[in-house]
Amino acid sequence: MVGADMERGLNPAVERYYDTTLDLYEELWGEHVHHGYWDPGERPDADGADRHAATDRLVRELVAYAAVPAGAHVLDVGCGIGGPALYLAGALGCTVAGITLSALQAARANEKAQAAGLTDKAEFHRKDALDTGYADGTFEVVWALESLMHIPDRAAFFAEALRLLRPGGTLAVATWAVCDGGLTAEQDALVGQILRHQVMPNFSSLAQHERLARDAGFADVASADWSDAVANSWDPGFAQIRRFEHGRSLMRELARDRGVDVLGFFYAGPLMKQGFDTGVMRYGALRAVKPVGAAEAVNPAAAEPPRDLPTRIADLLSEVIGEDRAGPHGIGPQTRLDGDLYLESAELAALGESLRRLYGARIDLSGLIAGLDIDQIIALTVADVAAYVAGLR
Ligand code: SAH
After folding, report:
1. Partners of 123 in the beta sheet?
2. Total count of domains within the chain
3. 103-152, pLDDT tens digit by residue?
4. Do 208 and 155 belong together in one domain?
5. Is pLDDT of 43 > 70?
6. β-strands 219-225, 281-289: how paired?
7. Ligand 1: which of 8, 29, 79 to mutate, judged by most atoms within 8 Å of the beta carbon?
8. Which residues' Cβ are closer than 6 Å to ligand 1?
């Protein structure tokens, strides 16, 4: 990054970096522009397949850690070429708006959505995370997978995420971070190189991220250090990375064609490996919830947009069980959960979890059903569940 970019803010440099490296990431990493996740002791193969399985897995780990509900309306901050968003839209039935600073990434992600038949579920735009234009309370989940470390004003990011979430909504973050406490001069030099090559302003620690989330007004804030699970991502044994590290002439050619910033892509590997090996680089997930009632407290005009709760719950239920089982007329307020759909306990648990995340921790669908007798269970409709939820909100 050159000085002029610093003065205009980091965004133009981030945009250029992802514009010029799009094909490199896609060829070497696939559709996921983020670390992989491995079990302790697991060693990645050199053929790239493991890397892909591991990057897929990281998305699922973050879904599980933050309890992202099926069928949620998600803002994907820093969506890359849409790998994670298309998983959320496909496997999880979410509706996703993905944003990235790179117009080329947004276009590629839209192409991939088209190819996956998911254009009604996922769309991608070139937008800045701090200037999205979305109304207060638009999303049930704000998802930021390896984008936070590019954003200099992290307090503003957490404040904006809170604004964009509806009460009870979930923030799910996974991010590069730095160890707690002061750095030695040597550590500082290493971190400085990583920041420069990866177009990041600075790193915060996982504890600092937690504090920022709480200060912004989030509740149920927690974070997990995943450094050991992701560090293999920089294993020089990955054949495809080694191939490029040895291809000096190719690197020279790329730098000539695209500008020297593109080389940051190649330099990251050994630097990040050293960073994880020495413990100065960390990686973690963070989850947080917008408190129910916070919108009214923060901004009286920001009340949740009026929505028909029975219809909303019917939609959630369709996402949980899949359209095939919903029947030709779909699911509506009068649909009986057990009487019509023969809901299985895992499906009931998934619906219950989504309701709890969206409408408050007091909601206990399994508890409600456990208190009914068999005739009442058979007669229980979506509208009954909506009435129960409304009573507890
Ligand atoms: N989450 C994606 C991509 C991670 S790469 C994945 O896991 O595959 C980092 C992404 O963050 C890039 O798409 C970059 O454009 C985006 N980004 C960085 N700063 C941003 C900002 N201020 N607003 C929007 N996107 C940003």
Report:
1. 97
2. 2
3. 999 999 999 999 999 999 999 999 999 999 999 999 999 999 999 999 99
4. yes
5. yes
6. antiparallel
7. 79
8. 11, 14, 18, 32-34, 77-80, 83-84, 99-102, 105, 128-129, 145-147, 150-151
